[in-house]
């Protein structure tokens, strides 16, 4: 999948993004703990503290899949990651750290790591150093428990993860669609 080039709304920058449902040999999911006050304002505000899948922006000329692999390495130091199929898509208006509104066109891919996994934050870019506060490997049940106490993105991740762990979905699900299933 190539990244889109043009904005559908005048004055709104398009930001293609790739995120990874990164699973280890025990089907535990890697989530990053984020602290970013910029997300508390704008078109879809959320609390400044939240948990998020690994990922980020797609660079010019890069595919979503290439961006997914690069972001996993930059954010975790993990190189031996298999990037698989796209399971979810999402279009969302957000406010970036500069306060500008962007349309994020997200694609979520399943990623797999095996063996002894050591997460290394030494490759973080300056913004990542400022906002990433930690990480956890969580089972699906632990994700559901975390969702009951804290903000986890995307919403309904526990239910979505259950489908992924069972081999689904057959086609990518749009998380933009308010009808996507989020019950656990």
The outline comes out as globular
Strand order of the largest sheet: 4-1-6-5-9
Biggest sheet: strands, sense, closure? 5 strands, mixed
What is the CATH domain class?
A: Alpha Beta
Q: Examine the coordinates and then state which fold CATH places here, giving the name of the CATH topology.
A: Nucleoside Triphosphate Pyrophosphohydrolase
In DSSP terms (H or I, runs of 4 or more residues), the helix count works out at 4
Plain-language structure description:
With 184 residues, this protein is α/β, with parallel strands linked by helices. It has a single domain (22-174), classed as Alpha-Beta Complex (Nucleoside Triphosphate Pyrophosphohydrolase), CATH 3.90.79.10. It has helices spanning 64-76, 126-131, 140-149, 157-165, and strands spanning 13-23, 29-35, 49-52, 54-57, 82-95, 101-112, 132-138, 152-153, 173-174. The protein has a five-stranded mixed β-sheet with strand order 4-1-6-5-9, covered by helices on one side. Strands 7-2-3-8 form a four-stranded mixed β-sheet. Helix 3 packs antiparallel against helix 4.
